[in-house]
Amino acid sequence: MKLYSLLICKWNPGNLAYILSSAYSLSTFSYFERGSIKELCVFISRTITPKLIIHSREIIAHDQFIVCGYKWNDGLTILSICDSDYPTRIAFRCIMEVYNDFSSAFSDDTLNKIDCDYSVRYPQLREFLQRYKNPLAVDSISLSQMKVEQAHDTLRRSLKVFLDRGENIEDLVQKSQDLSETSKALFKSSKKMKKSCCSLQ
């Protein structure tokens, strides 16, 4: 059960989604992978934030990552990126706690003036990530109960669902300014490996 990242985004219709703050726990990845994983987290967050449904718990799967996201009326969006074993109920509990703390720290007026990434300082996000890294430590419900329990208002979708008609993930990756050339090459090679694995079966 791994919680890799928490990201706070802000989206206004007609604009890009801005990454206000982010925190990462990537020690399970090799040193050389961590930069690409961070870029991938930002890319996924910026891509899906405008398309999330307001006031709906959404779960988006992409490769080995599960993204839990929630967007409020004002465009403020909080995302949790974890592995498939991490309980989504706990991820959404973390998201709600972060929202309550963050929205009390920053006024609507401050957030509405945001026009670039990382324009607010919010070190508490790292503290939330550390606290929620072990989901069993923050919740008394047993792991077996967590796996069975599913919120009825949760939408589960694939990242591909967020693409506009005629778009494909490969084109978005190539156009993205969030991904370095190394990350783009890594994405392309992982796709080729998946195809060759499938053809061997």
TrEMBL record:
The lineage of its organism: Eukaryota, Sar, Alveolata, Apicomplexa, Conoidasida. GO terms for molecular function: SNAP receptor activity. It comes from Cryptosporidium andersoni. It is found in: Endomembrane system. Residues 140-200 form the V-SNARE coiled-coil homology domain. Its main location: membrane. It comes from the Eukaryota. Belongs to the synaptobrevin family. InterPro entries: Longin-like_dom_sf, Longin_dom, V_SNARE_CC. It is a lipid-anchor. The keyword Lipoprotein applies. GO terms for biological process: endoplasmic reticulum to Golgi vesicle-mediated transport. This is Synaptobrevin family protein. One of its GO terms (cellular component) is Golgi apparatus. Keywords: Coiled coil, Lipoprotein, Membrane, Methylation, Palmitate, Prenylation. Residues 7-132 form the Longin domain. PROSITE patterns: LONGIN, V_SNARE.
